[in-house]
């Protein structure tokens, strides 16, 4: 009797294993057979205040939307992102989303996702792969952000008779925001031939690198009027370098940045920054809603552009008390 009971339990457990295997689990979840959306998300890293806010937004939105989120931090390395995406494919998640560290080099892994019939959503940053390899791209218009920063300088220096010397701190080499913001900015300032970029170098979107690069550039360029940094964090690092060089940020050297995270907004409200173009990291809710539509087989727009604004010092003072990030 006892023997028969053991055999029966073994039989049930074998059957259960078979059901899981049919669902296609390789140790991970089987999203497609359940109502719960399983979303694999590969994040760039934690290089900036923006990125931290973006990660938080995605994690919180997943919780609220009841999404089973498989989150992976690539520490700013493309090979880590490719490995994470391959692991999501192996786990047979319902949808893969990622914020690509650089623009190039994604064709092979995106083709693997397509062959496995797993839709891919790009968030925040673009790739140069064929558009048929992803369902949609959700994020900011980085060229437009660069243009807005440049336009502020065109207006600010409309009466300038002398050259205005600008240092540009670029984001991560080969990343969409670095390429596009440079393009938009340089396009806009071309309207005033007095506006001259005297040095342009990458600070990798981090505060530490922004400071280090700015220290070197200030030594090589004695006559600097403006810093344009591709994000707040590099601007904040460079601001320290400017102060340590005995100059007053916001006055001797005007500072224009992109993002509008809390520390950047504080510097703007304090008069140390002059203008910030907003780049919103709050993509979580939109990502969850889009991923659910994709899983349900609904059509989504190929490009979903984030709505953003700009801040001068007065607007920053007003916005700071209720700023979410
Ligand atoms: O891709 C968005 C950019 O990446 C943000 O401007 C920057 O702060 C981040 O690291």
Secondary structure: elements and pairs:
Blueprint: H1 2-22, E1 38-43, H2 49-65, E2 68-73, H3 78-90, E3 95-98, H4 107-115, E4 120-123, E5 136-139, H5 142-156, E6 164-170, H6 176-189, E7 195-202, H7 207-220, E8 226-229, H8 232-244, E9 254-259, H9 262-269, E10 275-278, H10 284-295, E11 303-305, E12 310-311, H11 313-319
Parallel strand pairs: 1-2, 1-3, 3-4, 4-5, 5-11, 6-7, 6-8, 8-9, 9-10
Antiparallel strand pairs: 10-12
The structure holds alpha-L-arabinofuranose.
Name the descriptors.
elongated; 2 domains; six-stranded mixed sheet; 44% helix; 325 residues; binds alpha-L-arabinofuranose; disordered N terminus; Rossmann fold
Describe this structure in words.
The protein has helices at 2-22, 49-65, 78-90, 107-115, 142-156, 176-189, 207-220, 232-244, 262-269, 284-295, 313-319, and strands at residues 38-43, 68-73, 95-98, 120-123, 136-139, 164-170, 195-202, 226-229, 254-259, 275-278, 303-305, 310-311. With 325 residues, it is α/β, with parallel strands linked by helices. Strand 3, helix 4 (107-115) and strand 4 form a beta-alpha-beta unit. Helix 2 (49-65) packs across helix 10 (284-295). The radius of gyration is 24 Å and the shape is elongated. The N and C termini lie far apart (65 Å). The model is unreliable at 1-31 (pLDDT under 50). The structure holds alpha-L-arabinofuranose (AHR). Alpha-L-arabinofuranose (AHR) binds at residues 47-48, 50-51, 124-125, 177, 205, 231, 233, 258-259, 279.
């Amino acid at each position: 009797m006892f023997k028969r009971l053991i055999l029966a339990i073994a039989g049930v457990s074998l059957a259960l294993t078979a059901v899981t295997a049919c669902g296609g689990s390789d140790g991970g979840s089987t999203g497609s057979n359940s109502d719960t959306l399983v979303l694999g998300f590969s994040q760039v890293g934690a290089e900036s205040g923006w990125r931290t806010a973006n990660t938080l937004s995605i994690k919180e939105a997943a919780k609220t939307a009841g999404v089973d989120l498989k989150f992976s931090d690539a520490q700013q390395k493309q090979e880590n992102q490719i490995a994470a995406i391959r692991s999501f494919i192996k786990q047979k998640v319902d949808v893969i989303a990622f914020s690509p560290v650089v623009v190039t080099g994604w064709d092979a892994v995106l083709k693997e996702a397509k062959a496995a019939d797993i839709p891919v959503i790009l968030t925040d940053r673009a790739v140069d792969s064929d558009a048929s390899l992803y369902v949609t791209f959700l994020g900011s218009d980085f060229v437009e952000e660069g243009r807005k920063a440049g336009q502020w300088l065109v207006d600010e220096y409309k009466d300038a008779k002398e050259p205005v010397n600008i240092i540009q701190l670029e984001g991560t080499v080969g990343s969409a925001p670095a390429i596009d913001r440079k393009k938009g900015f340089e396009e806009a300032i071309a309207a005033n031939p007095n506006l001259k970029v005297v040095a342009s170098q990458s600070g990798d979107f981090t505060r530490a690198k922004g400071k280090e690069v700015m220290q070197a550039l200030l030594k090589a360029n004695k006559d600097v009027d403006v810093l344009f940094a591709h994000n707040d964090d590099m601007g904040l690092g460079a601001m320290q370098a400017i102060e340590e060089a005995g100059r007053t940020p916001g006055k001797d050297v005007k500072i224009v940045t992109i993002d509008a995270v809390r520390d950047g907004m504080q510097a703007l409200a304090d008069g140390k920054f002059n203008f910030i173009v907003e780049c919103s990291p709050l993509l979580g809710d939109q990502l969850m809603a889009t991923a659910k539509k994709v899983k349900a087989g609904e059509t989504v727009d190929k490009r979903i552009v984030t709505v953003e604004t700009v801040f001068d010092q007065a607007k920053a003072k007003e916005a700071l008390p209720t700023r979410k990030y």
